[in-house]
Design goal:
It is a single chain. The chain is an alpha+beta fold. It is 32% helix and 24% strand. The strands form two sheets. Strands 2-5-1-6 form a four-stranded antiparallel β-sheet, with helices on one face. The longest helix is centred in the last third of the chain and has 17 residues, at 125-141. It is globular. The two termini are 21 Å apart.
């Protein structure tokens, strides 16, 4: 099973405060553990929402673009990992080990990534084949 582990933003991350050298070193060690365990597929930190935008869709109207920054810090994402593990319990155990060297209050959300089987009969063999071709092409861009 694949899970997205979502590090929620904080006042500090939204203020573009750089992590300390200690925090970067501890996170590097944690990421090394994930790699050695063979569970890390991807992981990235994100810049503050001031660098971002939202595109809002409302029915048939033209999409609306809203530039950051965005007000609700606790609803924003500061970074993520994609982990491949055997169960939700296993990913929870990994997340409980995320370094918190600054002693601040952080929230991490865990969401399972949908697999082809989750779409049932709606994902026809033709659609599945097209999806697999797209993924192969996208992998060339990585």
């Amino acid at each position: 099973m694949r899970f997205m582990v979502i590090m929620k933003a904080s006042e500090e991350s939204e203020a573009s405060q750089l992590p300390t050298t200690e925090m970067l070193a501890e996170m590097g060690k944690f990421n090394e553990e994930l790699v050695r365990a063979g569970v890390l597929l991807a992981g990235e930190g994100l810049t503050s929402s001031a660098d971002g935008a939202r595109v809002r869709f409302a029915g048939n109207a033209e999409p609306t673009v809203i530039d950051g920054p965005f007000a609700e810090t606790k609803e924003l994402v500061a970074g993520f990992w994609i982990l491949q593990v055997k169960s939700k319990e296993e990913v929870i155990e990994w997340v409980k080990r995320v370094p918190n060297t600054d002693g601040a209050h952080h929230e991490i959300e865990i969401r399972r990534i949908a697999e082809a089987e989750d779409f049932g009969d709606n994902l026809t063999p033709e659609l599945r084949e097209a999806e697999e071709k797209l993924r192969a092409e996208a992998a060339k861009n990585a």
